[in-house]
């Protein structure tokens, strides 16, 4: 029997690429997005792909998409949470409403979809939840701190969730990408205000972005599809080695800093 995966954010980027990879492996794929008119036309030629509407900020629409999936295919074996966007701007420039919107989509929306799917997986005693995080969840970047903070939240939620649902037979994997040539940049939201004093931060981020080694989106989503549903999938899966190297350097810096200030720490016991 074919397994079924529900993918959020399937109109672009990782969600779109994942749709093709799961379909090529014989999965039933429910490719969801806010506007189904934006679905890749090639989806229509794939007999095992169902395109349906899902807005991660609308609980009623989420429930309807989950019900439609179960009614159509009988089960949800895996969930890929790829919906999200990037908020650009320094912490001072981003408005409170933009901050809330970023977390509403990237964090609250992710959790709402998980909450809608989990009762079904619990009843079956199996399932695999795959959350698309970011290496930015480990390494915060200038002009991207709000986005990185949302992905840090996704990291911690995924790690805690894995401990909660593991005894129920449900696996969790946090996919941690770095840079790709996708529509991420064009879909990013700009800050509410622009403060000239932060121009060097934007210049530094632009230089970093130009130097970044891009991962192969197809290969990355193929790797994700290949580990979905296996007996012992990873809790953390880095895709694109440039991001992994960046995080290794950050962890080394972090431990060096802790060690340097350990005498002060010891005095607080």
TrEMBL record:
<dbReference type="InterPro" id="IPR020904">
    <property type="entry name" value="Sc_DH/Rdtase_CS"/>
</dbReference>
<dbReference type="InterPro" id="IPR036291">
    <property type="entry name" value="NAD(P)-bd_dom_sf"/>
</dbReference>
<dbReference type="InterPro" id="IPR051911">
    <property type="entry name" value="SDR_oxidoreductase"/>
</dbReference>
<protein>
    <submittedName>
        <fullName>SDR family NAD(P)-dependent oxidoreductase</fullName>
    </submittedName>
</protein>
<dbReference type="Pfam" id="PF00106">
    <property type="entry name" value="adh_short"/>
</dbReference>
<comment type="similarity">
    <text>Belongs to the short-chain dehydrogenases/reductases (SDR) family.</text>
</comment>
<keyword id="KW-0560">Oxidoreductase</keyword>
<dbReference type="InterPro" id="IPR002347">
    <property type="entry name" value="SDR_fam"/>
</dbReference>
């Amino acid at each position: 029997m074919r397994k079924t995966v529900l993918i959020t954010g399937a109109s672009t980027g990782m969600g779109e690429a994942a749709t093709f990879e799961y379909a090529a492996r014989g999965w039933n794929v429910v490719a969801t997005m806010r506007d189904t008119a934006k679905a890749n036309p090639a989806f229509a030629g794939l007999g095992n792909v169902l395109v349906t509407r899902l807005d991660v900020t609308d609980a009623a629409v989420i429930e309807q998409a989950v019900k439609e999936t179960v009614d159509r295919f009988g089960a949800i074996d895996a969930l890929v949470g790829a919906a999200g966007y990037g908020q650009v701007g320094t912490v001072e420039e981003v408005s409170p409403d933009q901050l809330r919107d970023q977390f509403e989509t990237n964090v609250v929306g992710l959790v709402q979809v998980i909450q809608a799917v989990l009762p079904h997986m619990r009843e079956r005693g199996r399932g695999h939840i795959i959350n698309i995080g970011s290496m930015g969840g480990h390494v915060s970047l200038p002009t991207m701190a709000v986005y990185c903070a949302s992905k840090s939240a996704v990291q911690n939620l995924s790690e805690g969730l894995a401990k909660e649902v593991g005894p129920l037979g449900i696996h969790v994997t946090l996919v941690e990408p770095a840079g790709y040539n996708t529509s991420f940049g064009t879909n990013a939201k700009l800050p509410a205000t622009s403060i000239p004093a932060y121009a060097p931060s934007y210049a530094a981020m632009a230089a970093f972005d130009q130097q970044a080694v891009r991962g192969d989106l197809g290969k990355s989503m193929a790797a994700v599809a290949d580990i979905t549903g296996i007996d012992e999938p990873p809790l953390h899966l880095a895709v694109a080695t440039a991001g992994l190297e960046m995080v290794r350097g950050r962890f080394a810096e972090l431990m060096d800093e802790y060690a340097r200030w350990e005498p002060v720490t010891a005095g607080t016991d």
